[in-house]
Amino acid sequence: MAVHVVRSGENLWAIARTYGVSIQSIVDVNGLPSTSLIIPGLGLYIPDQQPITRYYQIKAGDTLWRLALQFRTSVSSIVSANPGLDPNRLYIGQNINIPSPVKPRFSTLGFIVPGASQTFLNDFEKIAPNLTFVAVAAFTFTAEGYAYVVGNDAPIVLKSKELNVIPLLLIQNTTASGFSKELAGIVLASPTYRRNLVASLVNLANQRGYGGISVDLEFIPPPQREDFNTFLRDLKAAMGNLILHVNVHAKTEDIPTNPIIGAYDYKTIGEIADIVAVMTIDYGYPGGPPDPVSPLWWIALVVRYSLTLIPREKLQIGLPLYGHDKVVSTNQYRALSVLDAQNLAISTGAVVQYDTAARSPWFRYWKGTEEHIVWFEDIRSYIEKYRLIDLYQLYGATYWQLSLKAPQNWAYLDKVDVIKL
Fold first, then answer.
1. 75 sits in which H/E element
2. CB–CB of 233/194 below 8 Å?
């Protein structure tokens, strides 16, 4: 696949001619607002028939000849893709590029909030081939532990089954004010309320046609760490053949007293759950300073730590379909889809920068005297994250959330062997 970073003075006509594709195909796959306006630094996905270059970590016993057989390529192609590589001096842990017709294979899970988009069911049809699961954020629970529905989930469940995507019931500890640590603490601390939550979740999942349950309890009070483990054990035991998917905040070390990450016992959760999704999003968080949403260096640290406790065949990482538009020197911000962020850069005439450490794009614009910095994702940053999944052979990725437009991401996944269960 080809990625083109727009240079000053370039236009779509010249870019399309260079790659032998139509202007309209570039516009469509990148969601550009017009055929006439692009800006320097813009990362464009160029639709072509070329396969993805694999990213591989050398293991004991590997030789380029064996890797060429495994990936159905040639030694010379591998050497060409890795300038300076000495075929006779490979070492364990070395990362190399492998041009290969063998597609990377992993699972994908998209979250959706019912009602977040009026056109979602139509859009769902287009991206369904690129999804293994869809987790429907339409459930919370009472202070006595009884789960209940808060959104119109039925059309999504029905559509997902038609499209061969497994629907998961997403349970969250939310109230009208957002995530509630008090609600999680009260229910998890009580054996009776935990039993209520387990029973009501399993009943709802079976009655409403779900293939599993995705648990997203956030800001759990640290004293309820073992209570959370007990809840997950009991839930898994009661679920039968349903899939248990558990979401956890990202961390690079275990700090049991931390109010955000302390309640997540990665090792135990990894033993209980079928899938564990580490939320590698919001490094740059709402209300904080302008920072990348999901910098690659941070995700790599989180993944390496997670793999010491969670089996790689169970591990998913979170990819954002959004960016943050922040007013410099204030706590003001707004979230916007990666497509809206890209097109905001175009409409304001900004120059898109690319942070080489974060592997993330960003730009600056002014609204009157108000300085804004926008961090978002583009085809370049998504490729780097998928290379990390390939490198560590993780189970896959999750996306928050599917109503947010990200055409470059889905175009990339057209070249992946997405797991279908």
1. helix 75-80
2. no
Domains of the chain: 53-99 (3.10.350.10), 105-329+372-418 (3.20.20.80)
Q: Give how far Cα 121 sits from Cα of 97, 124, 230, 298, 319, Å.
A: 38, 5, 37, 34, 21
pLDDT digits (tens, 9 = 90+) for 50-92: 889 999 999 999 999 999 999 999 999 999 999 999 999 999 9
- Give the single-character DSSP code of 342: H
**Tokens matching residue 153:** 């989930």
In angstroms, what is the C-alpha Rg of the chain?
A: 22
* Distance of alpha carbon 286 from alpha carbon 334, whole angstroms: 8
Instruction: Write the DSSP symbol of residue 146.
Output: -
The 3-state secondary structure of 308-372 reads CCCCHHHEEEEEECEEEEEECCCCCEEEEEHHHHHHHHHHHCCCCEEECCCCEEEEEEEECCEEE
pLDDT digits (tens, 9 = 90+) for 143-171: 999 999 999 999 999 999 999 999 999 99
Strands (E), 59-125: 95-99, 105-112
Task: Report the length, in residues, of the chain.
Answer: 421
- Closest Cα to residue 55, out of 380, 316, 418, 390? 390
Neighbours of 45 (CB within 10 A): 22
Model pLDDT for residues 289-333, shown as the tens digit of each residue: 999 999 999 999 999 999 999 999 999 999 999 999 999 989 899
Rounded Cα distance between 150 and 140, Å, is 7
Q: Give the dihedral of Cα atoms 59, 62, 66, 70; nearest 10 deg.
A: 0
Structural tokens at position 417: 């062997």
Tokens representing 246? 């558990």
Helix (H), strand (E) at residue 237: helix 225-238
Token digits for 27? 């516009």
